[in-house]
Specification:
about 200 residues, Four Helix Bundle (Hemerythrin (Met), subunit A), about 0% strand, Cyt_c/ubiquinol_Oxase_su3
């Protein structure tokens, strides 16, 4: 009788994976939760100025104003990128590779336009005397919008990779997690901007 073959497993045991959620999706959701906490810290400083500090004013004050209209148009641009991204996601699920390519390209261009407008806004405000070091309101304004801008920049890098892969035919109706997971991040960035825009520019 032949001796039983024994297989030895070297190294640590394989990670236990839940069948209910994809590891990449779980990782993205946990990352977003941590980022919400980071934004929460900045919003705490914002509400401290608005509510706690006696006599503190938010924009407009002392002749300093924020470009609410320009930021509103920029908000529409960023929200439009969520629509084009959704179109791209739906397209690849239906096997429409052309829709995926066009949708991803438009999403990237709209996101880049948003960031360009925001940088131009910073340059204009700086010339008008609204700088991070001028007063607490400026520090908080640049902190909140700059933090969001950094997330947009990271998102654009991710979108660029997804777009390049889309044009190379790396996605299919059965394999499109590479579009879905980055899409969750980009939608988070868009939702976070609505909160930032509403609190900083409107309230």
């Amino acid at each position: 009788m032949e001796a039983a073959t024994v297989h030895h497993h070297h190294g640590p045991p394989e990670a236990n994976r839940s069948s209910r959620i994809h590891p990449a999706l779980l990782g993205m959701l946990l990352f977003i939760i941590s980022e919400v906490m980071v934004f929460g810290a900045f919003f705490t400083a914002y509400f401290f100025i608005r509510v706690v500090v006696p006599g503190a004013e938010w924009f407009p004050f002392d002749g300093f104003e924020l470009p609410v209209a320009v930021a509103g148009v920029n908000t529409a641009i960023l929200l439009s990128s969520s629509l084009t991204l959704h179109w791209a996601q739906v397209s690849i699920k239906n096997g429409n590779h052309t829709g995926l390519k066009v949708g991803m390209l438009l999403t990237f261009l709209l996101g880049a336009t948003f960031l360009f407008v925001q940088i131009n806004e910073y340059a204009t405000l700086t010339r008008e005397g609204i700088t991070p070091q001028a007063f607490a309101q400026g520090t908080i304004f640049y902190g909140l919008t700059g933090l969001h801008g950094a997330h947009v920049f990271i998102g654009l890098l991710i979108l660029l990779v997804v777009t390049i892969r889309a044009f190379r035919g790396h996605y299919s109706p059965d394999h499109h997690d590479g579009v879905e997971v980055p899409g969750i991040y980009w939608h988070f960035v868009d939702v976070m901007w609505i909160v930032v825009y509403t609190t900083v520019y409107i309230l």
